[in-house]
Amino acid sequence: MFRQYVLVALISMLIIDLLIFSFLLVKKIAKNDVKRRKVKIQNKYDKLFLHLIMDTDQSMTITPKTHLEKQVLHELVLHYNTVLSGDVRKKLLDNIDKSFISVRINRYLRSKSIWKNKVGTFLIGEYELNDLLPTLLEQLNTPDQELLFVTARSIIVVSNDQYIEDILQVVTRREKMTKQNVLTLIDLVEGDIEAILDKAMVEGNSFLRAIALEELGKRNYMKSIYWIKCMLTQSEKELRIAALKASYSLGDIGDESYLQGLYQLQTDPEWEVRAFLAKFLMKVNRSPAIDILTNLMSDQNWYVRYNASNALLAQGEKGELALMELLKSEDAFARDAAHAVLQRGILL
């Protein structure tokens, strides 16, 4: 009797193993078949994508018919995203059917994995899914800084400047994001945002004002000149540095009173401010600029001397003459810095 039980048990285990093996075999065959068909579709679409990238005929497009073809096209759009023109990319996305994409993205957003949340959030921007904007706006309250950056990026990509003020308020509150990351986000905004930046200068904290001022200069808005003059006398060195960075973007605009205010920073107590002044003066080909740079060559801080020497070298003949004069200086710092930069200039 016992032997019969053992035999039945062994046969049962064998049947179960065979069923599992059969299931795994069928699954593997099906998976390989799907993979083979995906490769075949991808090879066909790859050739079409090359035509879309190289050809000026914007009427050409790809129209997937099956679920698998949509999936392959979805993956290829992501792969070729950076080299596709906006119109071609939009046409392809319309052909995929955004509801197909939304299903996958919503699955990512609901996932407990923060990494999948970030991927889903990024894809909302890449596919410009306007219907998911409310989700992104709610997600601005996330404590995760990387997710916050991706969320803000996707909001800007989808809506341009519509919610830029909300984003700036969130990301600059308690400095939730680095200044460079905030500037990267603002750079994505197309069109005129001078009024928004001007409002930030009036109402924002020091962190936001420094960001807004740099961006005002970068976009060559004339209102930046007014704010540069205002920030030069602020007690926070970050605001004085932001004023110099904005000035560097503008260059020499021919305004003598504006330049005089900047020249005053040569005696600033903070070495970072003096270093940025030296960098700015690289763009000012005037005698006072060369005199100030010559003085900064004797600065106690190495970085200030380094910037001053590079700025003098960039001034052309007058700057080179000033550097050669410094070779006779009694100041060892100035003499060594002048020698090093002149030697580098000869090698270049």
Automatic annotation (TrEMBL):
Origin: domain of life: Bacteria
SUPFAM superfamilies assigned: ARM repeat (SSF48371)
Designated name of the protein: HEAT repeat-containing PBS lyase
Transmembrane segments: 6-26
UniProt keywords, alphabetically: Membrane, Transmembrane, Transmembrane helix
